[in-house]
Structures are given as structure tokens and as C-alpha cells.
Amino acid sequence: MSTSVQGVQILGKVHGAQSEILSEPALRFIAALHRTFDSTRQELLSARQAAQRLLDAGQTDKVWNFPPETAAIRNDPSWICAPPAPGLEDRRVEITGPTDRKMVINALNSGAKTFMADFEDSSSPTFQNMLSGQVNLRDAIRRQIDFNTNGKDYKLKPVGQTAVLIVRPRGWHLDEPRVTVDGRPVSGGIFDFGLYIFHNGHELVKRGAGPYFYLPKMEHYKEARLWNDIINFSQDYIRMPRGTVRATVLIETLPAAFQMEEILFELRQHSSGLNCGRWDYIFSFIKKRRAEAASVVLPDRSSVTMETPFMDAYVRLLIRTCHKRKVAAMGGMSAQIPIKGDEKANEAAMAKVRADKLREVKAGHDGTWIAHPLICKIAMDIFDEHMHGPNQYHVHAAPSTIAPEAPVLPSDLLNHQVVGGKITEGGVKANVEAALAYCAAWVSGNGCVPINYLMEDAATAEIARVQLWQWVKAGAKLDTTDVITASYIDKVISQVSPNVTKIVAGISQQHVDIAAAYLSAQVKREWASDFLTSDLMAYLESQDGGKWVRAAL
Length: 553
Description:
The protein has helices at 18-21, 24-56, 71-75, 101-108, 127-141, 188-206, 221-237, 254-257, 260-266, 278-288, 309-324, 343-363, 376-386, 410-413, 425-443, 458-474, 486-496, 500-503, 509-522, 532-535, 541-544, and strands at residues 8-10, 93-97, 114-118, 147-149, 152-154, 164-168, 175-181, 184-187, 212-215, 246-251, 271-276, 328-334, 367-370, 449-451, 454-456. By secondary structure, it is an alpha/beta fold. The protein has 2 domains: 8-386, Malate synthase, domain 3 (TIM Barrel), CATH 3.20.20.360; 425-543, Up-down Bundle (Malate Synthase G, Chain: A, Domain 4), CATH 1.20.1220.
């Protein structure tokens, strides 16, 4: 697509209504955001690498600590965050999912309080997915999204009966390679955020809500400061009063857990709380502590639960921090989906959902995440029974079987011990299966994948990938005492690969072969890659049908 906006190039194909999203006024705004803020983004990404070098060199106390320079912020009881914005007063159940048209309608109609429309971990970022998602959200906000497919009508429920919309843009590490400004790809997060607020900010306010966001994958309070600067710049640019936007930050990296109060402080004019992005948090825990691989080996993924010490500590600290500053402390994802045709298995899965949500509401969370509309009532009933007001801001200390009232120390956030945890052949196979199935689906253009009756996004594949790497790196042993080696993982990959196309619909053996080669290479590296989504981005070029700036594999 050609554009007359100076310095802006569109390197992917644009179809139909997508050209309305990439209007020249919108592209001028994206270019202004890029030119103003991308150099800061690059500096912050470099700072992540510098912090990792300190960790790799054994200087862990310089990273795994509450920042001494911000002690005054943590110790000042007087500041609180912005009050809940219209529609965000009660967030007891939030449904999440990608931005395809059918999902948007079903999620908005689900009965959940809010819908997090996701351009990040549950979307494969083909250009078509990113642009069509913007079209679908624009149409949903204006209630012009109804459509018919295969003889079935999809229509929004009446006004007042649909969920409040929240959007998750991509993280700071991801580029949007199909759009360049002055020869450089724009930030994926800036692209997603900018187009959404530009086209919909005023319309959302007019309809009694506002531009609300979930912000992912941050590792430092200065990254939150960058988002706040972008939010203020954007509000000024579109002539919207400052303080209209709201942003909930996912605490899903280990570094961010040490800076929760600082992150809230930086965004305090726009903050609507923090969320326990628990699966990505486990991934980050393994990845960031890569130099300690041999001494922080985690067992089978299924054994790492919310009762695991480092997870329990992180949840307690998040709830206390949010409630101290009067914002929502959101619980994590229950990925279960209904199991049709097997009543016993389905009841067991739903019992897991109930137990998970009961633990969250009793811990003091103000809401929770689900991945499927049919799970909504289960989660809602539990929160309705145990949370009688719109939130639990009065709950300052989440109960814990480990340390009910004790302060959360850095050592608690780093405690990886799992009582009775083992690495089993089944655990290795489950990780290989999840990584292959998800990566194959992702390169085919699908980022939200049902695998063994769980709705999986990139976080599951990331845990699987880095666990396999960690086990090989550490020379970890199975419960049979056999040592896990790269050749053993290759053997499991070769056993699992032929069956992956039966696990996930719509993928080809070619996609599986790409995933298998990638996973095999990953477990042999000195260090696992930062993100599989960055590594595999180049394979999406065939999905987009155009040349664009490649990520380096």
C-alpha cells in the first residue's frame, strides 16, 4: 500500500476496510509516536540486556531487590492511583481472546464484566490479523459488527448487556515489520495502541466508557513511565483530557515483581491495577535465572502451581500493593474449556476452575480471567458468593498457607522449591507437544489454540520451551534417574511430531516441521532465546504475501 505520509512505508498487503484503519491521519499519528518515543524504547530494551548480563555474571543482588532509589515512593502512604473509570468499577470476571470477528462478538456477549481483546500472546501477528482486529474492534464499538457465516447469525446483545472492552497491545520487544517510519519498523505496541486510541478514543467516551488497555511484558518501572508518556502524548494529540485512558499492567516478568509499586506510581494518573500474568511469570522466572539453571530446576510444568513458594509470594505482594494504592488486583487465567461428550472429564476440569477461582477470591483478588464463554458462569458464581462489593480493596494481606502476615522478601520471590516435584517422561512429552502444537499453529496464523482441552496462548509454549532448555542445560534427571539430554529431547520430538496435526486443526506437517526444527535448536543453545514470537516472526511473511523487514532468526 502506498502512502503520502512522509517517511512512512506500508510493506504488507492491505485489503478492504483495513485501508480505513491505515488512513493518512492515523499514519501521521503513528509516525509522530514513533519519532518521539522509539529511541527511548530502544534504550529500555538495551537496559534489559544489561540487567541480564549482571545476572549472568552472578551479580544477582543488583537486580533481585526492591530498587533502593525508589524507597521513598514505596514508603510514602499518601499517594493512590486514579479512581476506577466508567465501566471498570467491577471487574470480577474478565474474558480474554483474539480479535477475530466471531470471538469479539462471543466475548462481548459472554456475560463477563470486561473483554480483553488481545493483539499480543493469543494472536499470531500476521498483518491481516493485526489490521482485521482493528477493524473488528472499531465496528464492535459502533455496534456495526453483526455478521452471518455458514448460515449462523452473530449479533451483539443490547446496550448494557455487553462486556466493557479492554485492549492488549504487543509488548515493547516486538516490532511491526510491515510498517516503517524513516526506514525503521515501528513498535508493535505503539502501532496497536496508537491505531486503537486514534480511531476509537472519543467514540468510547461518547458511549460511556473510554480507551482502556492491558500493558504486557514490562521489566522495569521506566518502561511504565514510557507508556505513561505515550498515553499523555496521545491524549493531547487527539484532544482528550489527560486521565481518560486507563491501563492495567500485567506483572508477568520476574523483574517487574520487584517494582510493582513503582510501576503503579509511574502510571498512577491512568492506572487501573495489576494482573497476575502467571504463566508468563513462570517462563520469565526460568529465563531470567538462566545462569543458575542447575540450581533452580523446576519440575514438570503441571507441578508448578499457585501454591509453589515463588508464585504464592508474588500473588500476596501484588494484592497488597494494589490495595494499598486503591486499584484492582486481578487474578490469573483459567485456561480450561468445556469437554464435550465426556461428562466425567468435563466435571473434573470444571472442578479445577472452581478451585482456582475460589483460591483467588479468598486471597483478595478483585477479579479473574477466563478463556471461554461457557466458563463465565462458574467464575461469576464464585466471585458473587465471596465478593459482595465491586472489589476487595479493603483486603490488604492475602492469606497464605506459607506465611499469612509476613512481609514478602526478595528471597520469597526467588524460592523455587516444589515439594515432591519431579520431572517425568510424561512431563517432557507434554512440553514437547505443547511447544510443537503451539508454534506450528502460530506460524500458520493462529495464536489461540485448544490443546488437550486447554485454551493455550504463547505463554504455555514459552514455559514448555524454556523448561526443556533448562533441563538439558542443567543435566536434570527424570524420576527414572535418566539424564535429560538434547538427543533425548530430539527423540521425543521425533515421536510426537507425526501426531501434532491431529492435536490442532488447520496446521500442516510443514508447520510442524518448522516448529520441530526450532525446538530442537533451542534446547542446544547456550542460552534460550528471549521470545519465540520474535524468533518465528520471519515465517509469517508467507502469511502476509508481501516483503517486509525480517526479524533475524
